[in-house]
Specification:
22% strand, alpha/beta, 129 residues, four-stranded mixed beta sheet, 29% helix
Amino acid sequence: MPLVRIDLQEGRTPEHVRRIADVVQEVMLDVFAAPPRDRYQIITEHPVGHIIAEDTGLGFERTTGVVVLQIFQQGRSQDQKKAAYAELSRRLEAECQVAPTDLIVSIVGNGRQDWSFGLGRAQFLEGDL
């Protein structure tokens, strides 16, 4: 169950923001093999200038179209992570016009003990999931 934070700058239509979120979810299903209806996304739009994303010396020219994804997940391999980076870049460019140099992705690992889906319970640890 990846939990995905999507940070982007204001200026896109609600439909465009939703399409970005849908593409991200499709990649989570296809590459990370997330179960159906396992969708946890937080979308935050920031005023222009409130995301500062330099290029780490790679020579990228970022625009106001920058999108930052933080994916919190458990148990994905390095190959799955590399595939996710590539597929997110490919599909977000093709379907949402996000330039590959405007996409920043960070995948963070955690364990089953790090999740509660409600009721103040640790569903993975208590055998509910």
